Amino acid sequence: MLDHIGLSVTDYPKSKAFYDVLMPMLGADCCMVVTAADTGGTYEGAGYGLNGKPSFWIGTGRRTQGSMHIAFVAESRAAVDAFYAAAMAAGATDNGPPGIRAHYHPNYYGAFVLDPDGHNIEAVCHKPA
C-alpha cells in the first residue's frame, strides 16, 4: 500500500550515520541522497531501500512531531538479531530486545530500538524458526 515514508530528523548527519549502519542488516542500503542544491532549497535527505528503490527516507526539517513506530521486515531471526546489535552499537536506546512476541502471533520475532530522535524502530520476522 505504501510507496515510501519519510521522517524529518533533528540532526541529519547523526541520523544518516545511524541508518547507514542499520539498514544493511535488513538487506537495504542508502540508494538515493538529495542535497539542498538538488531540491533548490534547504532540504537534504537520504532514501533507503531495496534494489535501488528508496522506500524509507530521513531528511532535514523540523523533527517529526511525536514519535513514530516503523517496523521493517527482516528475512530471518538472525537478521533481527543483527539489526538489534548494530542499533545498540550505533547508540540506540533499547525498547525491546529480540524475541518472540506471541501476543501478536506465535512466529512474531521482533526487536525494538529508539533512534536518535526517539522513534520506535522495529525489525520483525514472521517466519517460523
From TrEMBL:
Coiled coil regions in record:
none
Give the organism, scientific name.
Rhizobium wuzhouense
Q: Which PANTHER family match?
A: GLYOXALASE FAMILY PROTEIN (AFU_ORTHOLOGUE AFUA_5G14830)
Q: Name one GO molecular function term.
A: dioxygenase activity
Keywords (A to Z) from UniProt: Dioxygenase, Oxidoreductase
**How is this protein named in the record?**
Glyoxalase/bleomycin resistance/extradiol dioxygenase family protein
The record's PROSITE patterns line, in alphabetical order, gives: VOC
Keyword Cytoplasm (UniProt): no
Q: Which Gene3D superfamilies match?
A: 2,3-Dihydroxybiphenyl 1,2-Dioxygenase, domain 1
Q: Where is the VOC domain?
A: 1-126
